[in-house]
């Protein structure tokens, strides 16, 4: 269990170490390193997903560890409130960034539109109201990025309580 303490409230996430061991361990390692502390949800697309894990409050991208293997073939689905690895168009490019689905996004499931899909490795178990509030924030362009919340959604602290 991981808790994200945000400026909007707490989100509790159950990490699936059985079905997505590489993604889960990668995420937990970032948590234990304090990497997500003082980062933001930098991309919010209403009724799609909220993305975080890569940018500081001033929209500077953080340096990450190596990219990991895409485990999207694990049978887990990109349903509302599931936690998935974010990546570029390259299938095995996930590192620190993640997203929480704010609706059912089956088109992201393996094999997806690119033969791979996006790996689900956890789910929100408490703090649904907080996820829903973040989903509703107003966004605009900022520092060359789209869908950035106008008022920062800050992860003050992220920690493992398992």
TrEMBL record:
InterPro entries: Cyclophilin-like_dom_sf (IPR029000), Cyclophilin-type_PPIase (IPR024936), Cyclophilin-type_PPIase_CS (IPR020892), Cyclophilin-type_PPIase_dom (IPR002130), E_coli_cyclophilin_A-like (IPR044665). PROSITE patterns: CSA_PPIASE_1 (PS00170), CSA_PPIASE_2 (PS50072). Keywords: Isomerase, Rotamase. The keyword Isomerase applies. Its EC number is 5.2.1.8. Residues 1-160 form the PPIase cyclophilin-type domain. It is an enzyme of class 5 (isomerase). PPIases accelerate the folding of proteins. It catalyzes the cis-trans isomerization of proline imidic peptide bonds in oligopeptides. This is Peptidyl-prolyl cis-trans isomerase. It comes from Ruthia magnifica subsp. Calyptogena magnifica.
